[in-house]
Amino acid sequence: MFMMSNSSSPIMEIERSNLDLEMEFPQDFRCPISMELMKEPVIIPTGVTYERKNIEKWFFRYKKTTCPATMQNVQNFNVTPNHTLKRLILVWQNNHSPSSSSPSPSPSHSPSPSPSYKRDEMVSLLQTLGSSPFKVNSLKKIREIIESGDEMKLDFIILGGLDELFQLIVQILVDCLDFMVFRACEEAFGVLQHLPISEEHDGKVIELLSKPECMKSMSIILQRGSMDARIYAITILKKLAKADFNWTVMVNLEQGIGMFKSMLELASDELSIKASSSSLQVLIKILDSSKKSRSRVIEAGAMCTLIELLPDSNRSKCEKILQIIKLLCECADGRMAFIDHRLGIGAVSKKLFNVSEMASKICVKIFSLVCGFHPTEKVLEEMIVYGAVKKLVVLLHMNGPSSTKNKVLDMFKKHGNLWSRYPCFPSELKEYLCLHPR
């Protein structure tokens, strides 16, 4: 018993030593909120130092507007790294740590920069961004930092990075012919595309992008920017599409038609599949949420572009193109643009049954809209010639009721008399529909 009571394992000694060390930390090294040793001490405008993550949670998650220690009202929520206190903590730890005599890591395996180092570097870059003549290089370094993780992205927003980006983005509206201003704007969008765009993040990025000046700049980049910059812009728009963005600002821009033309060009790009797919997704979202946008997209030449893209598109792209054509055909100008194109009915007829069930349903909706509002003899004849009517007959044999089958049946009831004049029209269908060719 005596021997056991005086013996202790090395693990127990380390745990006891660490516990003693923790209890001996100077009070000034502890965060007033958690009372734990601070690793990233920051000062707020009241002069009190806190652990960064604790005070940021206090301000931005819990929406508090007071200093936790003094209960003073806080107007400015910016925080400043307390480098002096951090150095004192590190020195104290090195002098009191039981593992201070352990061998240091090999120089050949130097650790990656710590989050603190990256944050300090970002603070420095943001502070000099406005006055630096090397804005493009600074923005590239900032992009590298925020790409390292979500924490850095949040820090960028908290540190006021969005305001700096906005200044660079709108400068293009003043000095659009200045090459360096243009390049800085492109890189600013390069940074912006990596930031979280959702209401869950206080909607700060969405608020920035909702400003007409920002959308005007994006329109310029989409039309005149480098390929990389145009991909940055369409990536941002794709994120906005997922965040239920209000597209009114963009649709009402004078440059709106030019922006839509640029999206259609990206949709036609065969080298960047990602950019092409993103453009189509953005167009679907805009057209689905704003009827005014449809006339502007039609004016931009969308119907011609989409119909000519349709024959050689893969399944995913084909479904998106058909969806856009369907949305455009829901307005009179869109239907006229569709039937005026000599390949419109033929291109859609070919995709019926040849892509996917979803694509076939959309094809039927397109034909139903065209037949319902513009049932000219030319249109109905082309549907026979290009095989659309023959395929629609097959859909009538589908088991059970469905909205698609009902649309097909309605088309035959309205236009079957004309179609039944053609020899290829099934005789049993004439009897079923009680058709009497005139």
TrEMBL record:
<comment type="pathway">
    <text>Protein modification; protein ubiquitination.</text>
</comment>
<dbReference type="GO" id="GO:0016567">
    <property type="term" value="P:protein ubiquitination"/>
</dbReference>
<dbReference type="InterPro" id="IPR045185">
    <property type="entry name" value="PUB22/23/24-like"/>
</dbReference>
<dbReference type="Pfam" id="PF04564">
    <property type="entry name" value="U-box"/>
</dbReference>
<dbReference type="InterPro" id="IPR013083">
    <property type="entry name" value="Znf_RING/FYVE/PHD"/>
</dbReference>
<keyword id="KW-0808">Transferase</keyword>
<feature type="compositionally biased region" description="Pro residues">
    <location>
        <begin position="104"/>
        <end position="114"/>
    </location>
</feature>
<dbReference type="Pfam" id="PF25598">
    <property type="entry name" value="ARM_PUB"/>
</dbReference>
<keyword id="KW-0833">Ubl conjugation pathway</keyword>
<dbReference type="GO" id="GO:0061630">
    <property type="term" value="F:ubiquitin protein ligase activity"/>
</dbReference>
<dbReference type="InterPro" id="IPR045210">
    <property type="entry name" value="RING-Ubox_PUB"/>
</dbReference>
<dbReference type="InterPro" id="IPR003613">
    <property type="entry name" value="Ubox_domain"/>
</dbReference>
<dbReference type="InterPro" id="IPR011989">
    <property type="entry name" value="ARM-like"/>
</dbReference>
<dbReference type="InterPro" id="IPR016024">
    <property type="entry name" value="ARM-type_fold"/>
</dbReference>
<protein>
    <recommendedName>
        <fullName>U-box domain-containing protein</fullName>
        <ecNumber>2.3.2.27</ecNumber>
    </recommendedName>
</protein>
<dbReference type="InterPro" id="IPR058678">
    <property type="entry name" value="ARM_PUB"/>
</dbReference>
<feature type="domain" description="U-box">
    <location>
        <begin position="24"/>
        <end position="99"/>
    </location>
</feature>
<feature type="region of interest" description="Disordered">
    <location>
        <begin position="95"/>
        <end position="118"/>
    </location>
</feature>
<comment type="function">
    <text>Functions as an E3 ubiquitin ligase.</text>
</comment>
